[in-house]
Design brief:
Elements: E1 2-8, E2 18-23, H1 26-38, E3 42-46, E4 63-73, E5 80-96, E6 102-109, H2 116-136, H3 143-150, H4 154-164, H5 169-176, H6 181-233, H7 240-243
Parallel strand pairs: 1-3
Antiparallel strand pairs: 1-6, 2-5, 3-4, 4-5, 5-6
């Protein structure tokens, strides 16, 4: 029940999500190297203050995500990069001494299942809103909508959407710490609903701007054509008003 821990300044990882992670502190690099050497899971906890360099237990949220390192790219200078496949939520019960990096005793938080019609209704609504958001975003592949629709786990979909939401880390942490599936879906739906409203407005403004631009461009082309016709006919300024 002991887990190697890496504190994160500005990243919240979620179960079921493949996430890029960068580590720079010597203790975090040592933790990653040990996890890779022993092929162990590694846990990630969000710092309460991203500016803190020397981390104590009280500087961290005690709920995080553990996962497997699927790719690790060490660097002789700067940050080390890894890709982590998030697997499960955990809650720290106690930090352990005697290690050159953070190690904690944890309890695993099982994924909530069931929920009946209330969860199913929220699940379907989240699928619909996520599909609409993807279509409203520029340069998003159509296959992504199909991938979202293929997800059959409400908890997995909630975590995936939460990971992609453009919200603050503390808000993402609140979603991570919401073990009740119905309440977690409500949180994600509320944030996604706000985002979809912004995307709709942005698209409406963009369409209006494009229409106005196209009309101005058409008017410019027509005026240029008129000047060329006037030039070919040898018309002078005396007839310009009449032509207009």
């Amino acid at each position: 029940d002991a887990l190697i821990i890496v504190p994160m300044r500005n990243t919240v990882t979620f179960p079921g999500v493949l996430a890029p992670v960068a580590v720079g502190r010597s203790s975090s690099v040592a933790a990653v190297n040990e996890a890779v050497r022993q092929s162990r899971k590694i846990g990630f906890l969000l710092q309460r203050d991203p500016k803190t360099d020397t981390i104590a237990p009280d500087d961290l949220h005690w709920v995080g995500t553990a996962g497997e390192i699927v790719r690790y790219v060490p660097s002789s200078e700067g940050a080390h990069h890894l890709a982590v496949q998030g697997q499960s939520r955990f809650r720290v019960t106690e930090f352990l001494d005697g290690w050159p990096f953070l190690v904690a005793r944890v309890v695993w938080v099982p994924e909530a299942t069931g929920g009946g019609d209330a969860v199913e209704a929220r699940f379907l609504q989240l699928k619909a809103q996520a599909g609409e958001a993807i279509k409203l975003l520029p340069n998003m592949p159509d296959e992504l909508v199909g991938a979202v629709q293929a997800i059959d786990s409400p908890g997995h979909l909630a975590d995936m959407v939460a990971n992609l939401l453009d919200i603050g880390n503390e808000e993402k942490q609140a979603i991570l710490e919401c073990f009740d599936l119905e309440k977690r879906l409500d949180k994600v739906l509320a944030h996604l609903g706000e985002r979809v409203s912004v995307l709709r407005l942005s698209k409406a403004i963009g369409d209006k701007t494009k229409k106005e631009f196209d009309e101005r461009q058409r008017e410019h082309v027509l005026r240029e054509q008129l000047r060329q016709i006037q030039k070919e006919l040898g018309e002078g300024e005396d007839t310009a008003a009449e032509l207009d």
